Amino acid sequence: MKKIQVSPSILAADFSQLGNEIKRLEEGGADLIHVDVMDGHFVPNLTIGPPVIKALKKKSKILFDVHLMISPVHKYIEDYSNAGADIITIHPEATNNLKSSILKIKELNKKAGVSLNPETNIDVILNELDKIDLILIMSVNPGFGGQKFMPEVLSKIKQLKEIQSQKGLDFDIEIDGGINFENCSLAKKAGANILVSGSTVFKENSGNLKKNIGLLRSS
Fold it and tell me: DSSP of 103-115, one letter per residue?
């Protein structure tokens, strides 16, 4: 069984102190830094782009887990690779050719992730599973933080674990959306090994990052 990892989402961090927030996350034991990139087009919100990621990466010793909620995504993959993304996760709906976009990420020596929205069927990625390093299951509709967890997506994780076992594959399964101390155990039981969490990491227990990251791992 893969080690449980926590990838705190900087969407919930203090944006006026992002460099310091990343240092705090490292000191608090974060395994990855989850960076949500939104374009106001693919999802109804705007966040940060390559220049900010590049500046933040200089302050980080741990991997940047960059989730691109942008469309069309293919032509921007190299920009985010150059900015310092270690894992680049894209949506099937945001590219004209999923296989081509995955291969482009791999050619840049980055880990390739594919994200499935709550309404997206796993069938869209079945032919590419041998090329994918990470599958991100969205447990909210993407675009905003602080939404309520959708437990119905856990069936996708269970399906993916079965396929993974049958085919002898080794991709990570990440879950993002409303993850807290109560439902994280359900996600882990279903088979997720990477937990993305924003509000819970930054807001619970008076913002004690180390305690909150530890609780997500162990709950």
Answer: HHHHHTT-EEEEE
SS3 21: helix
The tokens for 89 are 């996760």
Decide: 62 and 33 in contact? Cβ < 8 Å: yes
The overall average pLDDT reported for the chain is 95
Residues pairing with 33 in the sheet: 64
Sign of CA pseudo-dihedral 50, 17, 208, 138: negative
The C-alpha R_g of the chain, in whole angstroms, comes to: 16
The answer to whether the pTM exceeds 0.85 is yes
* CB of 133 closer than 8 Å to CB of 125: no
Catalytic residues: 36, 176
Mind listing the pLDDT tens digit for each residue in 26-72? 999 999 999 999 999 899 888 999 999 999 999 899 999 999 999 99
